[in-house]
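Subject: design request, 113 residues
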């Protein structure tokens, strides 16, 4: 699909959160090496929390995850090599990040994962 080798940016309101060098494309997911930027410290715990919640398989955890992920979407944006994307689901753990995206915002169904 031609994504490998691309660099996608994660931005906060005021500064870069990090960059993702794509090394695997498994549609609809892309994954790669995450290099933290100066803004990552502000959202590190938020990403850790949302990932812990998405791995739980209980209804209460899902509601908590949705609230945590709403905060992720509020605080960061994902920028493809050709510009910002409207909808995305992004996970960051250590030096790895994986995500899917859309040119349209995701609806509430089908965003987990």
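Subject: RE: design request

Done. Sequence follows.
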């Amino acid at each position: 699909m031609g994504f490998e080798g691309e660099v996608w940016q994660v931005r906060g309101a005021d500064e870069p959160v990090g960059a993702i060098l794509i090394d695997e494309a498994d549609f609809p997911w892309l994954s790669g090496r995450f290099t933290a930027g100066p803004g990552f410290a502000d959202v590190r715990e938020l990403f850790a929390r949302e990932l812990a919640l998405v791995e739980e398989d209980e209804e209460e955890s899902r509601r908590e995850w949705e609230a945590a992920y709403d905060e992720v979407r509020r605080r960061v944006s994902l920028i493809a090599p050709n510009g910002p994307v409207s909808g995305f689901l992004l996970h960051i753990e250590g030096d790895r990040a994986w995500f899917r995206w859309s040119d349209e915002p995701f609806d509430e169904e089908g965003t987990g994962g």
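The CA atoms of residues 55 and 113 lie 8 Å apart.
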